[in-house]
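Lecture notes, continued. The same structure-token format from the folding unit now serves as the input rather than the output. Read the line below as a description of shape only.
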């Protein structure tokens, strides 16, 4: 009976971590994927031209690429958990900025911040997953990836 009670908290913690990973994954793409279907409306509301508006979809991807190149020193400095927390806070903060600063400059700046936040999480989450779920790494990574794509699909489909 003691073996069962010892296993319960670990299993509960694993399930909670798994739920957090999926929730995090679901929220990695909406700030990026919702922009494309709204570009015409954004251009009309802000007066942005097509070139400036294209930065809203290009800059996050650029930041993700640059973030992947610089993740090793960031991982040493922040650690995985703090890095992921910082990434989530950056994404949430950028979304808040979008709600408050609806002009072109605020939207472009938020696109950069979203990209940095996503870069942090995408580079660090697999490390956490591998450490926490070594025997189920493939399955948990599949759930994480599915969450990312699911979040993007729902955001793109419902944005307009």
């Amino acid at each position: 009976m003691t073996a069962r009670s010892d296993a319960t908290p670990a299993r509960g913690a694993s399930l909670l971590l798994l739920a957090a990973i999926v929730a995090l994954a679901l929220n990695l793409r909406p700030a990026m994927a919702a922009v494309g279907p709204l570009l015409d409306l954004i251009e009309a509301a802000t007066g942005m031209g097509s070139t400036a508006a294209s930065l809203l979809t290009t800059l996050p991807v650029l930041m993700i690429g640059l973030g992947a190149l610089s993740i090793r020193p960031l991982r040493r400095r922040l650690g995985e958990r703090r890095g992921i927390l910082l990434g989530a806070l950056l994404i949430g903060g950028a979304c808040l900025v979008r709600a408050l600063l609806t002009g072109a400059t605020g939207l472009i700046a938020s696109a950069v911040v979203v990209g940095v936040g996503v870069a942090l999480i995408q580079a660090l989450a697999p490390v956490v997953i591998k450490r926490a779920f070594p025997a189920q790494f493939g399955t948990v990574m599949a759930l994480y990836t599915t969450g990312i794509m699911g979040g993007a699909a729902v955001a793109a489909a419902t944005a307009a």
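Point for the exam: The helical segments are 2-26, 30-33, 39-46, 50-69, 71-78, 80-100, 104-132, 137-159.
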